[in-house]
């Protein structure tokens, strides 16, 4: 499944050669979202891999960008302990606009609105002003 997000390019790092067959380049997006009049800021560290590492070259820190990405996860066991890692693998970067800042899923219709009491899967509102919005 593919996702899309638009945010401010906060940091970009040099390409790292992990092995003779794998390289990656990490970057950070600042994402802001308005929920019920409150602004929430999140920071997403993403990565480009292999021949996609150069996609970031045409952008500078502070630029608004739209990023298409996939969620990748791995599981491994070491010394009897199971570990998991999740990566946000970017595969397209385009110029973004401040008006489209925030996040959206490619299948946005599957995500109900916050506090939509008509929805059978209404979300809890994390804002401090809503003391009676318990999800049960």
Series of secondary-structure elements, N-terminal to C-terminal = EEEEEEE
Average predicted confidence as pLDDT: 80
CATH class: Mainly Beta
- The span between the termini is 30 Å
| Number of helical elements | 0
Task: Please tell me how large the radius of gyration is.
Answer: 18 Å
The percentage helix is under 10%
Strand content: over 45%
Largest sheet: 7 strands, antiparallel
> Could you list the spans in which at least 5 consecutive residues all have pLDDT below 50?
103-130
Please report the total strand number as a whole number.
Answer: 7
Broad structural category? mainly beta
Structure, described:
It is a single chain. The protein has 136 residues and is mostly beta strands. The chain has one domain (2-105): Nucleic acid-binding proteins (OB fold (Dihydrolipoamide Acetyltransferase, E2P)). Helix content is 0%, strand content 55%. It has no helices and 7 strands. The protein has strands at 2-12, 16-19, 22-35, 38-49, 64-78, 81-95, 102-105. Mean pLDDT is 80; it is low at 103-130.
């Amino acid at each position: 499944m593919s996702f899309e997000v638009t945010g401010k390019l906060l940091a970009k790092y040099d390409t790292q050669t992990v092995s003779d067959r794998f390289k990656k380049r990490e970057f950070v997006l600042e994402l802001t979202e308005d929920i019920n009049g409150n602004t929430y800021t999140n920071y997403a560290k993403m990565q480009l891999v292999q021949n996609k590492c150069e996609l970031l070259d045409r952008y500078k820190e502070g630029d608004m960008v739209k990023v298409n990405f996939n969620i990748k996860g791995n599981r491994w066991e070491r010394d009897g302990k199971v570990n998991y890692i999740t990566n946000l693998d970017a595969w397209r970067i385009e110029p973004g606009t401040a008006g489209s800042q925030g996040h959206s899923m490619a299948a946005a219709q599957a995500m109900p609105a916050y506090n939509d009491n008509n929805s059978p899967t209404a979300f809890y509102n994390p804002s401090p002003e809503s003391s009676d919005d318990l999800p049960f």
